[in-house]
Write a structure and sequence with these properties.
Blueprint (H helix, E strand, L loop, with lengths): L1 H8 L2 H35 L10 E2 L9 H7 L2 E2 L1 H34 L6 H15 L1
Length: 135
């Protein structure tokens, strides 16, 4: 059973999947930083200093805090600003993946458009044709 597990775990597909998950997690951290540290502050500056991450609707009368972290400690809140930030993260990731897949698709299409090199028979026939033209 241990031998079967080793075969399964070390197959190319499983290792490729593991690498993809690790790279995806790292990419997710980059996108989170891009949204949280670059995009949202710019949006906040344009909109008059709005900080979406602290926007929430209290769902309990016990919630009196103005910061999301403190409000969550006091009771139930609807953190719509945090949701908006996550939606922006998703849109950025989806757009980057779209661009990457589109670029790969174009590369594959260009490779498919290249004519195959002539076969030996075609080369010989071309030489014969050229020799006959010269006579």
């Amino acid at each position: 059973m241990l031998e079967e597990f080793k075969k399964f775990a070390l197959r190319g597909n499983v290792v490729d999947l593991a690498v993809g998950v690790i790279i995806g997690a790292a990419f997710g951290a980059i996108v989170n930083s891009l949204v949280g540290d670059v995009i949202m502050p710019v949006v906040g500056a344009i909109s008059g200093g709005l900080d979406f991450s602290n926007y929430f609707i209290p769902l309990s009368s016990k919630v009196t805090a103005t910061a999301l972290v403190e409000a969550k400690k006091q009771g139930a809140v609807l953190a719509w600003g945090n949701f908006l930030t996550i939606v922006i993260n998703f849109v950025i990731i989806a757009f980057v993946l779209f661009l990457a897949i589109r670029a790969i698709g174009r590369l594959v299409a260009k490779e498919a458009e290249k004519p195959a090199p002539p076969s030996k028979q075609e080369e010989l026939l071309t030489e014969i044709r050229d020799l006959l033209k010269q006579r």
